[in-house]
Structures are given as structure tokens and as C-alpha cells.
Write a structure and sequence with these properties.
Number of strands: 0
Structural class: mainly alpha
Shape: elongated
Strand content: under 5%
Oligomer: single chain
Mean pLDDT: 84
Helix content: over 70%
Low-confidence stretches: none
Largest sheet: none
Length: 144
């Protein structure tokens, strides 16, 4: 029975993942593409990516959370927690929480975020050079 709970959660994720992609991920990617048409949008996406708070950073967090959920389920199955009332009722004593898996999220390193942000930073630099050149040419042709 308890093993089926983990299987059910995995199957539920397989069903929900495409819906999550359709409702949140695809529209976010389209909006991000539109944002790249302006310097402010490029700056925004580059800084989000560099800081790790962009969509890929959120995906890293959710992947870590899913792995942690699996660790908890495996731990409870190993301890036969679903066959004992001590995990669910106070009248049978308290379970030993010292060995319970602790959640830990380590952000990816700065080099990975820099690699992720490099296309946006490059596009931002190119756009700035193009805009500067256009403004400079307009300034030269106008009478001061």
C-alpha cells in the first residue's frame, strides 16, 4: 500500500507536468521572447538569470523539492511508518525526528548562472552598440 502512494505521486506528476508546461512555462517563454525586444527587457531577463531567479532557477528548486519528497517517502517506507501509529498519533509516543531527511537547496554556482545569462548579456551589449551607433549617426547629421 505505501509503495503505491509513491507510485501514485509519480504518476500524478506525469499527468500534471504537461498541464504545468502549457499553462505556465510556455506563456512565460513567449513573454520572455517579447521582452527581449527592448533593452529593459533584456536587462531584466539577464539579471534574473544571473541571480538564478529566472524560470530555470525555479525549475532547479522544484526538481530539488521533488527529490526531497521522494527521500521522505523512502524514509517513511524504510521506517514502516505507515504500519505504525506513532507517526500519526500522539498516544503511541513520539517518533524519532533526528534522522528525518532535512531539506536543503543549494543554488547552482555563479558560473552556471553566468553561462545561462550569456546570450542575454551578449544581446544587450549588441543592442546597446547598435543604438549608440544610430544615435551617433543622427547626431553627426544634425546641425548643432
Amino acid at each position: 500500500m505505501p509503495g503505491s502512494m509513491s507510485d501514485t505521486a509519480d504518476r500524478t506528476w506525469l499527468i500534471r507536468k504537461p498541464t504545468l508546461e502549457d499553462i505556465y512555462i510556455k506563456p512565460a517563454n513567449v513573454e520572455r521572447a517579447w521582452l527581449k525586444l527592448s533593452p529593459v527587457g533584456l536587462y531584466d531577463t539577464a539579471t534574473q538569470t544571473w541571480a538564478g531567479t529566472d524560470l530555470l532557477g525555479a525549475r532547479d528548486f522544484f526538481d530539488t523539492v521533488r527529490r526531497y519528497r521522494q527521500q521522505i517517502v523512502d524514509y517513511l517506507l524504510d521506517k514502516d511508518a505507515f504500519g505504525s501509529r506513532e507517526w500519526f498519533s500522539a498516544d503511541k509516543g513520539a517518533p524519532d525526528w533526528r534522522n528525518f531527511p532535512q531539506f536543503s537547496f543549494q543554488r547552482v554556482d555563479v558560473a552556471t548562472n553566468a553561462k545561462r545569462a550569456l546570450p542575454d548579456v551578449g544581446a544587450l551589449l549588441m543592442l546597446n552598440v547598435i543604438i549608440f551607433t544610430l544615435i551617433f549617426l543622427i547626431f553627426i547629421k544634425s546641425e548643432v
